[in-house]
Amino acid sequence: MAPKDFEVAIIGGGIAGLTLAIALHHRGVNVVIYEQAAHFAEIGAGVSFTPNAVQAMKHCYSGVYSAFEKIRTGNLWPSKKNVWFDYHDGYHDKDETFAFSITSSIGQAGVHRARYLDELVKLLPEEHARFGKRLEGFERDGSGRWRLRFEDGSEATTDAIIGCDGIKSKVRQLLYGDHPCSHPTFTHKYAYRALATMEDAIKAVGEEKAKNACMHMGPGGHMLTFPVNHGQTLNVVAFHTTESDWPDYNKLTRPAKREDALRDFANYGPDVTNLLQLCQPNLDVWAIFHLGDHPVPTYAKGTICIVGDAAHATSPHHGAGAGFCIEDAAVLSDLLADDRVRTQQDIEVVFSVFNDVRRERGNWLVQSSQHIGNCYEWIGQGVGEDFSKVENEINTRNGMISDVDVQGLCREAVGILRGRLGGDGMDKGARL
Ligand SMILES: Cc1cc2nc3c(=O)[nH]c(=O)nc-3n(C[C@H](O)[C@H](O)[C@H](O)COP(=O)(O)OP(=O)(O)OC[C@H]3O[C@@H](n4cnc5c(N)ncnc54)[C@H](O)[C@@H]3O)c2cc1C
């Protein structure tokens, strides 16, 4: 691919911004990330990936996949190699809690977030990132390029803006103003997150449940666990549904005590309560916000577009939000790198194609994730406490997430682009 004359600015260097920048850089597109923090950083502990995400990593750039392979941790028992999660009744106190197993071609594939980011950072030369740059606004300059304004008073210019600035995206707010999608809403679920040593976890729940990914279901709450750090650590996330509103929209976490977690899961079985006992005495509660109440009407306007959580921030119950960020990066990098894309007008077409091929799938994930989270908590509409229905819902929806041909999606997007730019290729319209 011939080098490009234009430059794109990525706002935000999380998984979406970084994988997109890496994919663009390795396709010869000039790219700069503007990140508000002083360095790249991920918050939280583990993130696990589904098969579509792994395909997308390979497609973005081989190094994105090797980084994952280097640090991924699966289930520790060979017999559980293809198990995504074993589902348990986490509520009733009984000896045999097993409900059903959900499998996948890659089984459980978790990484420690900060370690994955450390590996990704190595794939982007440092001159492509600027730190301490919190976007405040943008406007066109006299030549038709964009002038970006940052809170530290500095400015930069660019030909196109890609908002990868997460769930509370400033780019989305600037694009949509008073539209309700400017602000994500509380899903009425929050989560306690903890990391336990494998030794402690085995004492709490026994070897099988500590060394392999488990979902402990209950009424109005569920806990997921999977090993990270090559099996030295167990990642624990316990979700609770509440009727209350979240106290402060501006803060996604609030301080809590271990006793609060134990109170929320007071009537649960010993697996759940024993694992909660391993939490630190002082911990954070994470609010789960999403864009499900007010989906974004379009991911692109002119030479501005939004990607990842900025476009389709989802609750985490499918474990697919970050994977969809990487899918976005695979599609958008192929589009921008296409030889026919030369001018700002071409970039507008690129972004409109990106919107057309990605929005339905992105917005579907947000809705489906909320539903499946309810299924884990026996409050899914039409599903309730019927485990065979819960299992069926998970398998059907996981199939829609995982069983895609990412290379095919990228090829199809480029075909549409070429159709619209007047080259060869076919405009087949959007697909999920
Ligand atoms: C509890 C929990 C568990 C999850 N588990 C999984 C999982 O197992 N699997 C999975 O696939 N997904 C999971 N997800 C979802 C996943 O974490 C997100 O979809 C993904 O991390 C979003 O990445 P992003 O790059 O779009 O946004 P972010 O990671 O939020 O990155 C946005 C970046 O933009 C920067 N930024 C923000 N505003 C500005 C500004 N104005 N100017 C400059 N920079 C700015 C931020 O500092 C940040 O670096 C989970 C989410 C949660 C909450």
Automatic annotation (TrEMBL):
One BP annotation, GO: secondary metabolite biosynthetic process
Molecular functions per Gene Ontology: FAD binding; oxidoreductase activity
Signal sequence bounds: none
All copies of domain FAD-binding, residue ranges: 6-337
Organism encoding this protein: Zasmidium cellare ATCC 36951
One of the Pfam families matching this protein, by short name: FAD_binding_3
Domain of life: Eukaryota
Name of the protein this chain belongs to: FAD-binding domain-containing protein
Matches recorded under Gene3D superfamilies: FAD/NAD(P)-binding domain
Keyword field: FAD, Flavoprotein, Oxidoreductase
